[in-house]
Amino acid sequence: MKGLLQRVRSAHVEVGGKVVGAIEQGLLVLIAVEPHDSRASADKLLHKLRHYRVFSDAAGKMNLSVDDVQGGLLLVSQFTLAADTRSGLRPSFSSAAPPELAAQLFDYLLTQARTRAGQVATGEFGADMHVHLINDGPVTFMLET
């Protein structure tokens, strides 16, 4: 499972011109599910998301997690992160999980996040989404399980 996390001042997702998920300070995380992923992968990714130290402390060092700053999580499914881009000029999506598995594991991740974290929002799985964000820093990391 891959998670491209971006520290944001705010972020929201629109589907059909309507906001379906929004957070203020926190992490916008684009999530890709791969065929070998499992619930254990989702649990590991969620642990990393909640505890990865990407927010500044009083000394300006990245020592605080999203939980520490009581920030939100905006989780957005994005299968294109699983693309194989090593050769040619067109991405291959053979390394992305089938939609059924991806939906199942993304829903599991979302359910676990909602029971363990503070504010959690999401986009709409499989929809054409417009993601708006104010990247803070910018601070962006790719996490993999």
Q: Could you give a short description of this structure?
A:
With 145 residues, this protein is α/β, with parallel strands linked by helices. It has a single domain (2-81, 91-144), classed as 3-Layer(bba) Sandwich (D-tyrosyl-trna(Tyr) Deacylase, Chain: A).
Question: Could you explain the architecture of this structure?
Answer:
The chain is of the alpha/beta class. The chain contains 2 helices and 8 strands. Strands 1, 2, 3, 6, 7 and 8 form a 6-stranded mixed β-sheet that branches. Strands 4-5 form a two-stranded antiparallel sheet. It starts with a strand and ends with a strand. The model has no long low-confidence stretch (mean pLDDT 96).
- Summarize the amount of helix as a percent range: 10-25%
Helix/strand structural class: alpha/beta
Runs in which pLDDT lies below 50 for 5 or more consecutive residues are none
CATH architecture: 3-Layer(bba) Sandwich
Helix count from the secondary structure assignment: 2
CATH names the topology as D-tyrosyl-trna(Tyr) Deacylase, Chain: A
Largest sheet, in brief, is: 6 strands, mixed
Shape: globular
- Sketch the topology as an H/E string, one letter per element: EEEHEEEHEE
Instruction: Bin the strand percentage.
Output: 35-45%
Tell me the total number of β-strands: 8
- The overall average pLDDT, rounded, is 96
Alpha carbon gyration radius: 15 Å
Q: How far is the N terminus from the C terminus?
A: 5 Å
* CATH classification class: Alpha Beta
Could you say how many structural domains there are in total?
1
CATH homology-level superfamily: D-tyrosyl-tRNA(Tyr) deacylase
